[in-house]
Amino acid sequence: MTLSGVGKRGRSPYIRGMEEPTRDHGPQPFDVLMDRWKLTNHQLVEASPEQLNHKQVQKARKGRQLTLHLMQKIARALNIAIFERLEKAQQEVFVEYLHRQLFNYAKAHDPTWQDPNEALIETR
Asked: What secondary structure letter does DSSP report for 52?
């Protein structure tokens, strides 16, 4: 930092440049799925057998960057919450969601992915 308060690149060191990564990724496919399955944050927390709290679910829905472990925990809780709501015949054809399908910043995310459970959502 120079005496003028401006960094080496000619900008204030306290302002993030556009080339630097962000931790806020905007609306996520996870949030859309929660709405489509008509699930609330509380229902997801209640269905989870792991320690999952409302703050973690809210961060996931808003698009804050999560660790891989938390993305996987959210995916497991979502699958359980949905599975418990389905009838026996529907449970047999339900395809579990993976974390890379729920978060657009996850490694190996495919933006062209089509939901295999589309027919189940429409019958709800």
From this structure: -
